[in-house]
Specification:
By secondary structure, this protein is mainly β. The protein contains one helix and six strands; from the N terminus they run ββββββα. It has a six-stranded antiparallel sheet. The mean pLDDT is 94.
Length: 89
């Protein structure tokens, strides 16, 4: 999945063929165009995942291991509902 937007509270919006996801808590500073691949669940209850990251600024030449929290995963329509339910109006 590719980083396509910055959200509030340092969350990032990812988009890929499977849909969209919101992540947070990376040990790296991610930028638009960076790619994040979810590898495996580390802690299911905390939604903590082992990931591989490749950076657009390095032409995706290397993979870096990290752990991130997955806050949301679904299609664009589910994402719109998630935003409505989690945004203060």
């Amino acid at each position: 999945m590719e980083v396509v937007a910055y959200l509030h509270n340092a969350d990032l919006l990812l988009e890929g063929e499977q849909g969209v996801a919101i992540i947070s808590g990376s040990h790296y500073v991610l930028s638009l165009g960076d790619k994040v691949v979810l590898q495996q669940v580390i802690d299911e209850q905390a939604k903590l995942y082992q990931v591989q990251i490749s950076f657009a600024c390095a032409d995706h030449a290397m993979l870096h291991e990290d752990e991130i929290q997955l806050k949301f995963e679904g299609c664009r329509e589910q994402f719109k509902k998630y935003q409505m339910n989690t945004t203060v109006h």
